[in-house]
Amino acid sequence: MSATEIPQITVGTELPAVQVPKITRTTLALFAGASGDHDPMHIDIDAAKSVGLEDVFAHGMLSMAYLGQLLTDWVPQSAIRSWNVRFAAIPPLCESDLHGRGHGRRRRRRDARHQGLARRRHRHPRRRGRRRR
Amino acid sequence: MAGDRDRALALEFPPLTFDVERGRLRAFTSAIGEQDPTYLDVEAARAAGHPDVPVPPTLYFSMNLEQADPFWYLHALGTDLRFILHGEQSFTYHAQEYAGDRLMLQSRICDVFAKRGGALKFLVNDTEVRRGDELIAETRTVIVVRNPEARA
Questions:
Q1: Which of A34, B43, B53, B143 is the most buried (most CB within 10 A)?
Q2: Which residues of B touch A70 (CB under 8 A)?
Q3: What is the ipTM of this complex?
Q4: Which pTM was predicted?
């Protein structure tokens, strides 16, 4: 359920973890259609192999969408001013559930006190790397 | 490299219209496993105080893909799409958007640079999302183009 209040934010505030389902080829097929990103690297194993990859890989934006849910589960969406994600590794298909966690940091003490702003730094554990805000 | 950058920065992106529709929002939020009914159902959204189903935070990226060839600019620059990766993504929000609104997207490439001796090329694509004259959101997409033949 989405949050309705701005929580107290201080340096080191830990965001509630989000559990996301296994990323399967079905997940990628549905996300490709729903997101409009039909890049064959995500849905066509022959295309992936043609550039030396073993298999298709997940859209970076799928992971970012999971992180977006981590945020909207934590605060009202209207409280989110801006955020940035750097994709650090190619996300593989996963057999196990993923666990996303974030750590909040106060951006500017005065702003945070008045507006509840915080820079958010997210670590999304992957088998081969991590992406963070 | 300088020629690439000049060509990229000179590219003119046609403005893109995106109509926010409930069905599209539901397809997207279902595909990402969203459990919050506010994002799935208009009655739940209104019960939560929204006028209609809200646009979730990352859908603004997808709006730019609503065209016949969303990567036309990469084709225009001679990029092999098999070697692109999504490097980075930013969103800045100025207002909440909902189903029923019509949005206009205007993009431009604002920077191109290379690293690792040309093994990696980066294109920075900025988009402004407006509802009429009102700036709703801004996105920044960094596309990484791998050049396996360049020496790192």
A1: B53
A2: none
A3: 0.92
A4: 0.84
